[in-house]
Task: inverse folding
């Protein structure tokens, strides 16, 4: 059978990885897929660089629409990124009857409903294993491996840049700003790192996982997003002393009232496997009612790890030859006509309605009665305390200091109730600086 | 579309889990699969117990062949186990044109070539996600998620009983026999635990993973199999002091000369994630040339975790409606006509040709010159030493002891060379008891 003809849109880091791996492993991939997979055409604005990557055997063009218009092309791989031209090209490729493979989490988290509907109407596949956690086959695990389960929750370290920064902060006892600069120097963080450090990239990814875990539409606009820029070295140290690590988690959870969808720094018990995921590595924990807790770990970014996911999607498409698209794996794991109703039954909860436990660090005047005042306010709000550490003032502020840190761990609390209690505590004259509040997840 | 009609052969632990999960999550599963999945018929020798599990709505028979002969049944799920009647029934189901789902690792590791050929000839699927690592979708990861890669090695904790025993030995400082009895009392080990503790069960599973990782036939007869029955508490303690944990690993590795296929206790650096997999949990590490190292973790046994894998296979079959079987996922991940040739190119290596590093514990007379003699014999055999610990005699044998333990870590060595050197060392009059030799894997 004729090899599948692939057109690449964009041949940067992931595109060249895809080309190189397909070349290097072509014989093994053909033995798996039952037919060859060939990159027949590449579109990139920088045609000179593109030609350096792919050589003379592959046609290189500057206009992506030439790839889409080519009737020989079976699958279009979109590696441009962003919401703009990428969206238009993906929709045009679908309209032209091409299958699409994309690593574009931002595009799918925001415009997925429109794109998947267009694909379903046209009977083509939009595959996106590379959009979440790089080379880890987590989309496959959620959409196919765990189909028996009522998924209860998913929690993942799904942004390598922030995990690298947090690992370095802990290992070297450094503050955020210092480590960010080092990460930029080493290439682990981009020149403009906003999407990573503010949690937006993780929120795109957890939005996709939420949809395929629970069978609801993608709803990025309803995600709660908080990054790691306000984390202090002190919090990482205190967490450590309490037996926890701080990680930026993307979390989505099924509750009686709806679905939680949130990205924020979280304390995790140090003994959990996921708490020991260091550096730029990714890991996703999935809890299903039948299977219990499972974990998936690997490289979440990089040229060849991401290419591994892109090519797995291409092999899947090759293997589906002749399959009835109405029955093959639905784009969002559940049959598309059932998504909207499920979205009404399982709405995404406002952050105020999320129930979790908390780590609080409160900088207070080192005076008698301060702890009593604070714990009374918490008790009045119905918030129950799990543990309290009061530091020696000298340890915190140096010799002769009149300030100290109160560290409080709470039991499960509605976030809205916590917000109110914290506003009252913050207003106390003996509370000297803005309170630090970090959510805590047991993940068991 | 009509629900898929499933016939269960055997309704013990996994069978009742499969029935219960399909009942409980039927609506979600239907939304995923595009059609319902119904257990229409159950065969079990104990029809009374079977009826208690499934109630009146499902037909229960004592003769499995009634299920296979029923033209309404689309898929036969074999949960009987073993090589005997299970093999005959699986082949009969295939001959009758039924797809087969099985959790029977022993059957597939030994008779897989015959069974998969029969299925390919008949155009039906034999799916076996439940045969390896219970609910962890590791077969799917290897056959589908990592298809871009030239897989380099796979190493897994794939037997929960032995991992539970090793965890308890380490935590409580107890010896093997004591913990085995406790494990039997708690239901983590069977009354006849031989298949687990001697490594046979793990060898069945790693044989399957080896085939689908490297595209070679299943070759259980060529696996090296060593269990945990000879492990002493002392080795676990010494390993700990050296920064290692001891785990029973199933390992398969691609080398220039062929494929390593082996099960034995192994020292692993304590900082690796897989070294921290405790109790009855399973984990598999897969290294591919593009993706790097990935890890998959979860429950490797139990009623509903295993049912999760069985049902995932059923959903896969439902979703393949209309697909050309010549192109859908091959049983052993690679197109079947390519397996035999690959098996010749990549033969399974004899254990003597495996290269790995070693932990040695040698009980010696506490005399001058003993260490020099032993290290000279190792050097003469071309074995290079990574670290040596000589214990104080008093610590090892109590006050006034004239015996002590030498602990030696070696660099990579051919097993055949190590065998020869150990025979010479064992023959020394100052070596007092049989030498303990445990292989060491870095897994990075």
Result:
């Amino acid at each position: 059978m004729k090899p599948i003809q692939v057109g690449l849109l964009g041949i940067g880091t992931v595109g060249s990885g895809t080309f190189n791996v397909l070349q290097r492993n072509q014989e093994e991939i053909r033995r798996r897929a039952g037919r060859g997979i060939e990159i027949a055409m590449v579109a990139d604005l920088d045609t000179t660089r593109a030609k350096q990557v792919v050589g003379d055997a592959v046609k290189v063009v500057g206009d992506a629409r030439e790839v889409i218009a080519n009737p020989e092309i079976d699958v279009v791989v979109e590696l441009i990124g962003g919401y703009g031209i990428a969206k238009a090209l993906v929709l045009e490729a679908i309209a032209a009857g091409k299958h699409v493979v994309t690593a574009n989490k931002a595009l799918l988290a925001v415009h997925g409903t429109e794109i998947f509907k267009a694909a379903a109407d046209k009977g083509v596949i939009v595959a996106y294993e590379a959009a979440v956690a790089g080379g880890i086959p987590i989309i496959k695990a959620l959409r196919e491996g765990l189909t028996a389960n009522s998924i209860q929750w998913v929690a993942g370290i799904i942004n390598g840049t922030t995990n690298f920064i947090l690992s370095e902060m802990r290992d070297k006892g450094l503050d955020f700003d210092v480590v960010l600069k080092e990460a930029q120097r080493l290439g682990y963080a981009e020149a403009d790192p906003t999407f990573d450090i503010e949690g937006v990239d993780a929120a795109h990814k957890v939005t996709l996982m939420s949809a395929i875990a629970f069978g609801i539409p993608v709803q990025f606009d309803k995600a709660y997003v908080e990054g790691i820029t306000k984390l202090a070295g002190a919090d990482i140290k205190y967490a450590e002393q309490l037996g926890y690590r701080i990680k930026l988690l993307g979390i989505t959870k099924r509750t009686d009232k709806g679905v939680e969808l949130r990205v924020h720094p979280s304390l995790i018990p140090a003994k959990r496997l996921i708490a020991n995921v260091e550096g730029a590595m990714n890991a996703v924990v999935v809890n299903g009612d039948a299977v219990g807790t499972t974990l998936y770990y690997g490289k979440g970014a990089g040229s060849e790890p991401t290419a591994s996911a892109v090519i797995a999607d291409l092999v899947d498409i090759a293997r589906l030859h002749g399959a009835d698209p109405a029955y093959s794996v639905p784009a969002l794991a559940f049959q598309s006509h059932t998504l909207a109703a499920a979205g009404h039954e399982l709405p995404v909860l406002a952050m105020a309605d999320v129930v979790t436990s908390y780590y609080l660090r409160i900088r207070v005047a080192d005076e008698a009665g301060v702890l009593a005042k604070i714990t009374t306010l918490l008790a009045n709000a119905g918030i129950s305390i799990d543990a309290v550490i009061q530091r020696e003032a000298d340890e915190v502020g140096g010799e002769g200091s009149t300030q100290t840190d109160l560290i409080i761990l709470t039991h499960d609390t509605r976030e809205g109730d916590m917000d109110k209690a914290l506003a009252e505590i913050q207003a106390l004259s003996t509370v000297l600086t803005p309170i630090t509040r970090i959510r805590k997840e047991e993940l068991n």
Notes: Chain B has three domains: 4-127, 138-300+343-349, 355-440. The radius of gyration of chain B is 24 Å. The mean pLDDT of chain B is 95. The domain at 355-440 of chain B is CATH 3.30.70.260 (Alpha-Beta Plaits).
